[in-house]
Amino acid sequence: MRRGYLVHVHSLVVMLICMFSSIVHGQQYTEETDLNVTANGRNGSLVSAFFVLGDSSVDCGDNTLFYPLLHGRLSLYPCNGSDGTLLPQIIADKIGLTSILPFYAQNGSLNEILGGLNFGSTQAMIMNQGGFSHQSLNQQLRQVSESMQLLQLHLSENTAVEFTKSSIFFLSFGKEDYIDLFLHNSSNPMLNHSAEYFATILVNQMTNAMRYLYEANARKIICLGVLPLGCAPRMAWESNQTSDGYIDGNGCVDNVNNWVLEYNRLLNEHIVQLNAEFSDAHIVFCDVYTGILEIIRKPRFYGFEDTKSACCGLGSNGAMIGCISTELACNQASAHVWWDLLNPTEAVNSILAQAAWSNQPIPDLCRPFTIHELVNTKT
Asked: CA–CA separation, 126 vs 263, rounded Å?
């Protein structure tokens, strides 16, 4: 049975459970209840909830079906064993939203949706490969649609719409597409095309995803670029093994980073166009590539000692086998830029989150405005 089919069935089951739970418990939602789920009524800010979509940059593996069996890189702890170490969770904490559950952890409660959900799935890709794809972009968008439909069932239509408009939708995709391209598919015909060609395919789908969310009444969207993947321990190790690709003075594979840069450039351009097209939308692009590269270039300034080796892993620079046990981890993860094969440490994510929030210590990480400004923008 195809895993994509299993995922879709599971999503429908979750939706039915939620509907059944509402009937069994006799939940009747009044106008007073509607008022209690508005943004100011729940957390004292202008944000109702935080909904997260993405790949391993937003998920530790607990939101991926059969994760230990299907995870091809054997790195079971990409975020130090806790969702709280990832960028979207750190940002959510700054907003005051700390009850964000993985999509598959729901038990049918409306309050769980009202608290926000993480639809992210490790190894999720923009390009839907089918078969054993890991919760692709399109699959996660369907789950968002189902969740918003549940809000419509539980609340008045106006309240559900206002709740969605004042929520933040956080998207972080693309990393796994480039990992798949450079690590898993050396004979991939896409490598015969230009970096712009591949990036255009990905960015067009991301643009369609943001349009889809807008049509579903989302008005506050954060979209992350791809990190400097060529600097990750696994990429450098692979390049050394195959002698394929120039490694620069920072220990980064130049060719990989150039491809990623093209994706980030196009994504930023499309977000500028979407903001111009949708005058009532507030879409923010966060350039984590520039942020992490700034840390790698000035490690001592930001409090880091090691910019090349993984804190948790085996082999040269911890890059041959991923973090199969936290017992493999180094004693001071905060001194490392990289946690495992391809993911940054909590210390890096904390700096990025602060920069995204306030433009400090790294200026202009997010544009056209900071996350703090986004939070305080009325819809």
From this structure: 12
Look up residue 199 and give its two tokens: 């990036």
Contact, 149 vs 223, CB < 8 A? no
Residue type, 341: L
Question: Strand, helix or coil at 348?
Answer: helix
pLDDT tens digit string along 70-84? 454 555 555 544 556
DSSP 9: H
Residues found in the chain: 379
Per the model's pLDDT, the better-predicted residue between 264 and 152 turns out to be 264
Residue 285 makes CB contacts below 8 A (sequence gap 6+) with 223, 224, 225, 267, 268, 271, 366, 367
Burial class (CB in 10 A: 0-12, 13-18, 19+), 209: buried
Question: Tens digit of pLDDT for each residue in 308-332?
Answer: 999 999 999 999 988 888 788 899 9
Q: Which two tokens stand for residue 128?
A: 């839907």
Could you please state the CATH topology (level 3) that the domain comprising 3-25+48-375 is classified under. Rossmann fold (3.40.50)
- pTM, two decimals, is 0.88
